[in-house]
Amino acid sequence: MSNLISEHIKEGARTVILIDGANHYQACRRAGYEMDYQKLLSTFRKHTTLVRAYYFTALMDDGDRGERDPVRSLVSFLGYNGYCIVSKPSKTLTSVSGEQYTKGNVDVDMTIKAVQLAPSVDNFVLLSGDGDFCVLVNYLQDLGKRVIVISSKDTCADDLRFAADSYIDMKDLRTLLERNRNESGP
User: Fold this and answer.
1) Which of 117, 130, 132, 144 is least buried, going by the fewest C-beta atoms within 10 A?
2) Comparing C-alpha atoms, which of 80, 58, 79, 60 is closest to residue 68?
3) Which segment of 13-17, 94-98, 124-128, 152-156 scores lowest on mean pLDDT?
4) Which domain holds residue 132?
5) What DSSP string describes 156-169?
C-alpha cells in the first residue's frame, strides 16, 4: 500500500504537506476512519525528503463559556509530534436571518505558505478538497512543482482533482494510515 504513495512522488524529492484541517476532517469522516498523523509523516519520510508538514486550522475562543474547542487537543498533539501548526481564531458571525454561525477559513494562510516555500520544494501534498485551491495548484505547476491532492471523492471538488498532478482518494489509504484506537494520541 505504501507503493500508492511512491507511485505519485519521485523518490527523494523535497516535499511539503499542507493540511486544511476542517476540510481534511470532513474527508476522513467520508472515508470512514480517523487518520494516524504519525503514520502519515513516517510514510512520506520513507518515500521523499519531507521538508515540513503543516496543519492549518481555525480555533474557537474558549472564552468564558467553560467549553474547550475539541480541535485544540489534536493541534497540541500534532505540534508535539512533528507538525507546524498554523492557527487563527474563528469568528462568530450573524446571518441576515439572525442565526449565528462560526467561520474560520485558512485558505489564504495555506496559499501564502505554499508560495513562500515554492522555491525550495519539489512536491506539495495538499490534504484538502477545496476547489478554491485550483489557482494555487496551477501557480505551483507553472513553477514546475508537482501537486498531489489527497481527499475524499465525496468532499473533493472535481476541478481540484483534475487540476492536481495526482489525486489519491482517502479510502485507498485506509489500511496504511488508519489510526488504531488502542494507540495513544487523538
Assistant:
1) 144
2) 60
3) 94-98
4) 12-60+70-177
5) S-HHHHHHSSEEEE
Other C-beta atoms closer than 10 Å to the C-beta of 20 total 26
Task: At 148, list the grid cell.
Answer: 498531489
Whether 185 maps to a domain, the answer reads no
- Grid cell in block for residue 38: 504519525
Q: In this structure, are residues 49 and 10 in contact, taking their beta carbons and an 8 Å threshold?
A: no
**What is the rounded distance in angstroms from the CA atom of residue 86 to the CA atom of residue 106?**
9
| Backbone CA torsion sign across 59, 153, 123, 51 | positive
Cell, residue 68? 474547550
Number of domains composing the chain: 1
- Taking the C-alpha atoms of residue 133 and residue 139, their distance in angstroms, rounded to an integer, is 10
Q: The CATH number of the domain where 125 resides is what? A: 3.40.50.1010
Q: What is the pLDDT of residues 119-140, one digit of tens each?
A: 999 999 999 999 999 999 999 9
Residues 155, 30: contact at Cβ < 8 Å?
A: yes
